[in-house]
Amino acid sequence: MPSACPPTIGDFSVLPVSIPPLPSFPRSAVHYVYVRRNAPKVPTADDSRSLFLTNVPVDSTELHLRGLFAALVGSGRFESAAFEEERKESYQASTTDLQPASLVRQLAHSGNKKRKREEDNAAERAEEEEAARLPSTWTRPLRRSGSTAVVQLADEKSVEQVLKAIAKIHKSKKYPTWGENVADRVPALGSVWLKAHNRLSYPDKEVVQAAVDAFSALFAKKEQEAAEMAKKLRGEADEDGFVTVTRGGRNAPASRNEAEEAKQKMLDRAEKRKSELTDFYRFQLRERQKEEQADLLKRFDDDRKKVWAMREKRGKFVPEA
Fold this sequence. Notes:
52% of the residues lie in helices and 11% in strands. The chain is of the alpha+beta class and 321 residues long. It folds into 3 domains: 8-97 and 142-200, no CATH class; 205-274, no CATH class; 280-314.
């Protein structure tokens, strides 16, 4: 019998999950998943209908979580799941990927013109990057111990229902079973998983060559776009009205470092233009804070003088005989 666990720990609701016996460990166990409302540092529109999970089982897949939430609140509530590794890869791709072509087009076409073409170009770029990746050598990933995931549900009401269902589980002691009706829909682990990894580690030469060719073509395309962006920026004056002339003149081909510096400069300018009004109000706020601080210091100095005056007056006081 598992030891009693509190229904909540801090902001987290504790979700007990029954792990069925395996050939390698022929005993059932209870695993605890900690669930709370999703509250990332950078808010998004879907936060109100999302849940943040931590300590998910190491063999977690989207199908496992879908089955778990279906056992809690029924089917049709679960939409998607993003695991920790996937969120990190998505964030790194969005922050480090060099996409100068889109920046050049934004300079050439102000406003929201040709949005459809932009979307088509983005979809085409995604296909090119997918083709440039080498095939995976694992049939399914394993999560690190204590890994996290963000689950997106149908609506905010579903979030409420999940949290209430977790609270009821602690009273009924009927824990949902992990991986129920899922085993036949996901690749097996164990020796079969390792044998598949050994086989996938040696893909066909044609597959590897196609991925290498796609990567080379994509790299050359990015280099060309970076050179075009740096060339365009060389002809633009900075805030002080000066035009930067680099090695080779204004129209010489740009190196990758120069292109990345040009990209960062362009992003900085766009961010500064975007925050000019906000910075203006911040300047007013800072000035007001300085005035309030000066007023406090003045009042403190006046109070201190009053205290010293009272002390001196007390020292000269002579009681009547």
